[in-house]
Each structure stands twice: as C-alpha cells, then as structure tokens.
Amino acid sequence: MGVESERKHMLLIAFFFWGCSSLVRDRLYIMLGALLFSTGGVAIKASALTGWQLSCFRSFAAGIALLVFLPSARRAWTWRSLVVAIPFASTFTLFTLANKFTTAANAIFLQDTAPLYILLLGPFLLGERLRQRDLFLMVTLVFGLVLIFAASRETTINATDPRLGDILALVSGFTWALTVLGLRWIALRAPHYGESPTTAIVAGCFTASLVAVPFAFPIENATVGNWLIVAYLGIFQIGLAYVFISEGVLRLRALEVSLLLLVEPVFSPVWVWFFLNEMPAGLAIVGGVVVIVATAVHALRREGVDSPSTSSR
Question: Whose CA, among 121, 220, 222, 259, lies 20 to 30 Å from 290?
C-alpha cells in the first residue's frame, strides 16, 4: 500500500511539471536547483563528520551522480576541464569548511561576493569591458562585505571559529569567481570545439575529494545518519541541483536565471535557523541583504541596457 501511494505521489509530481508551460517549468527547475543548493549549510552542520570528511565523501558522491545524471559530463574532456577544476574544487572545500566554523548565513553571504572579483578579473581574463554600472555593484558589495565582517562573532556549537570561517568563506567567493570565469571560458569555446563546462564541474568534484583524502581518516562518526547526509549532499544537494539548473538555463534569459538563483542565499540561513536554531548577527543579515539586493539590481540594470540588442534575435 505504501509503495502504491508513493508511486501515485511521484506521478502527480510528473504530471504537474509536464502540465506547466515550458517557461514555467524551466523557472521551477532553476528554483528547485537553488533550493537544493540552499540546504547545503544545514546538512553540513547537522553531520557529526568533520569538514574535511564531508568535503571528501560529498564531492566523490557528487562526481559520480553527475556522471550518471548528465551525459555531457562523460565526453569532451580537455586540459581546460582540469584547469577549471582547481578553483571549483577549492570552492567546494572552502565552503564546506567555512560552514563548520561560521554561521551558514555568513558562509553563503561572503561567497556571494564573487561578482566583485568577476568584475575585477573579467577584463584581464576574458576581455570583458568594465562598465560604470559595474562600479556601483563593486562598491556596494564591498560595503556588504564590511558589514558582515564587522558583525559580532560568538563561538557556538555550530560555529566553532567564526573568524576563521568568515575568512574561508571570503576566499571561497574569490575561487568561485575564478570558477565562473573558467566555466564561461569553456562555454565560449563549446560551439566550435564541442567542449562542455560540465566536465570541469565533475573534475572539480573528484579533485576536491582527492585533496581531502589525507585529512578524512580515521572516521570516528561513521553512523548511518552521517552517511545518509553525505549521500544527500552529493546526490541531491549537488548532483540533482545541477541537473535542474542545466535543464532550466537552456531557455531562460540570463536575468531570470540570476534572480532565481538568489533563492539560495535567501533560504540557506532560514533552513539553519529552522532546524538548528542558528541565528546570525543582525549586522551580518544587513550585509547579506545588501549583497543580495545589489546583485539583483545590477542584473535588472544590465537587462535594461542589453535587452534592445537581444530582443531583435
């Protein structure tokens, strides 16, 4: 009876998705991917495994899941995939460790300052021109960053070294910026050389796992609950999330994708507050709001400038 009920439930979900228009379905895919991403902080904190152990096993599980879920991840590997895998693996590792040391809010807010570094490095690495409106975003992101760092840091059971965690999260924002630039570098070559950014993501997962191996053993908390968390993080929070996003991003405008992905930093602190009663400092919340709003406003302003040229296609 239970199996039959579960089957009916899955069929209802399937009919709901296919009954939606393609655009609505794509938006739901992006939102579901962002929601899955947002659960990373609470899952990491809920596990008794160390940050290195979670990074090792979660990354390996994610790499396997992506190879299974995404056919594009199994072909067209090049040396560029391995180059971009390095900052991606660094981001994976740093973000996992940061969530063990500081609040989930600080970890995601500081990582989301990545656009600051993308704007700074874009002209040098990809030849992308820096515009006047980009300067406003950069100044605002720095202001939000300062607010987050100025927030009081109290050691708790879920945030054992907030200052160190904030630093790791800040560095993860820089490495994520390098990852985004690297993925864009591969994507620009894809139409002519058949390369896929997905290969860099998979390579990054396995690289992160390999780097963490020396620090992951011995395992003292190998309980069923901890392994279930590892499986969830790898298969669903990363693997399935990328499947949703890779499907939804094909037909949506860049503006919609950028705004819908902001679901992650909005909900990440909510999950940790709801399940673990972790409350970030007030100043950190204000700084996070500044970062999120500045990113959204910048996306809207960019669309307003770029839309005339894109609408003629």
Answer: 121
The Cα-based distances of 3 to 7, 14, 115 in angstroms read: 6, 17, 46
Domain count, the chain: 1
Give residue 256's domain range: 34-304
Contact 103, 280 (CB under 8 A): yes
Do residues 47 and 223 touch, judged by C-beta distance below 8 A? no
Q: How confident is the model over 12-33, as pLDDT tens digits?
A: 555 555 555 677 888 889 999 9
Identify the three-state secondary structure at position 147. Answer: helix
For the residues of 85-146, what is the DSSP string, one character each?
HHHHHHHHHHHHHHHHHS-HHHHHHHHTTHHHHHHHHHHHHT-PPP-HHHHHHHHHHHHHHH
- pLDDT tens for 234-253 read 999 999 999 999 888 777 77
Residue 194 lies in a domain: yes
Q: Which of 139, 151, 61, 66 lies closest to 107 in space, CA to CA?
A: 151
Report cis status (omega within 30 of 0) of the bond before 218.
Answer: yes
Residue 102: inside a domain:
yes
CB 143 within 8 A of CB 290: yes
Token pair for 70: 């995404």
The answer to whether the CB of 187 falls within 8 A of the CB of 197 is: yes
Has residue 131 been placed in a domain? Answer: yes
pTM: 0.85
Residue 161 lies inside a defined structural domain of this protein = yes
Cα separation, 145 vs 2, in Å, equals 49
